[in-house]
Amino acid sequence: MNADLHQPEARPLPSDDTAPDGARSAGASRPAHAPNWRTVTAMIVLIPAVVVAIAAMFVSLAVDPEPHQAPIGLVAPPPAAQAIESALAERAGDDAFAVERLADADDARAAIERRDLVGAITVGPGGVTVLTAEAGSPVLAQVVAGVGSGIGTARGIPVAVESVVPTPETDSRGTGFAAGLLPLLIAGMAVGGAAAVALRGRVAMQVTVAVLGPLVAGFGFAAVWSWLGVIDGGVGVVGLAAAAMIAAIAWFTVGAGTLFGTAGVGLSALVMILISNPLSGLASSPYLLPSPWGAIGQWLPPGAGGTLLRSAAYFPEASVAGPVAVLLGWMAVGAALLALGVLRGRRGQTGVV
């Protein structure tokens, strides 16, 4: 007789497919991480704590803004220059201005046009002339004019205020330009978020949206600003600057969204809107933010983008190498995150049997 007939029949190993229907459905419906009271406690404590911390940051940046190491020029004979520097420190504080002595008023005007200085005080035979740049920051220009005028008046010297780089007459307070910067930030988030979520897994489409979307939005914003009189011409240059700001935000968003999913888009919103936006000084000036927040804000896309846009719109002589490098760096970070997300997705596909 064949020995194989006496071998016991092999039984299949238990699996999810052979489990009773009730057990299988119960296991499928059970969450991997069931909520517990520790989670509830963490939500009650951590979420309000984070919101309160963000609110404290917003309020601290907005309450009683004062200049911090704002570069200001001084043209005066040595004895008068020393007295004016002491008066500046006495009136505005030791940390308010970084004073740079210049040879004459023309040098001061040229430095303001390059955005090396936020203003200047010149002393001549006719009295004191305060040079300002409302286009750079109307709020900071008022501070410079007020301090300079106060010094001249206290010494009984005639005071005149000259705007070296004024805002356009149709936007004399600069409110139109400042109001348009937040929509630029939102445009970057919208373009990047849409590409990350709606086009997930289609890299060529994501890249196309991240490249062309900011260009269309940037030139659109520049055209609107020109039409409303916020800028005097220069639509092409301002459009490119706006597109660079939008692209930096969009690339980081699509990269984070591709790598981390919806949580990555949320992370980008946290970084760009809740942190970067108040640190950018878009509505006033980075020099009016407490140290070192103003400097930190210039390393983030909204701050660097706002500086680039003001230079492109009103200061053609200003160097833009710094903000352009920052924005390109954020685009590169976004591209790297996108590449990592694509590699992670491909590895996940090859690992499936």
Protein architecture, described:
The chain is of the alpha/beta class. The chain has 2 domains: 70-166; 175-348, no CATH class. It is 62% helix and 8% strand. It has 13 helices and 5 strands. The protein has helices at residues 21-29, 37-62, 78-92, 105-113, 138-154, 175-179, 181-198, 203-228, 235-260, 262-279, 293-297, 301-314, 321-350; strands at 70-75, 97-101, 119-124, 127-132, 159-163. The protein has a 5-stranded mixed beta sheet, sandwiched between helices. Helix 9 (235-260) crosses helix 10 (262-279). The protein is elongated, with a radius of gyration of 29 Å. Residues 1-5, 15-19 and 22-29 have low confidence and may be disordered.
Mean pLDDT: 86
Structural class: alpha/beta
Q: Helix segment count?
A: 13
Largest sheet: 5 strands, mixed
Number of domains: 2
How are the strands of the largest sheet arranged? 2-1-3-4-5
Number of strands: 5
Give the SSE map.
Layout: H1 21-29, H2 37-62, E1 70-75, H3 78-92, E2 97-101, H4 105-113, E3 119-124, E4 127-132, H5 138-154, E5 159-163, H6 175-179, H7 181-198, H8 203-228, H9 235-260, H10 262-279, H11 293-297, H12 301-314, H13 321-350
Parallel strand pairs: 1-2, 1-3, 4-5
Antiparallel strand pairs: 3-4
Helix pairs in contact: 2-10, 7-8, 7-9, 7-10, 8-9, 9-10, 9-12, 9-13, 12-13
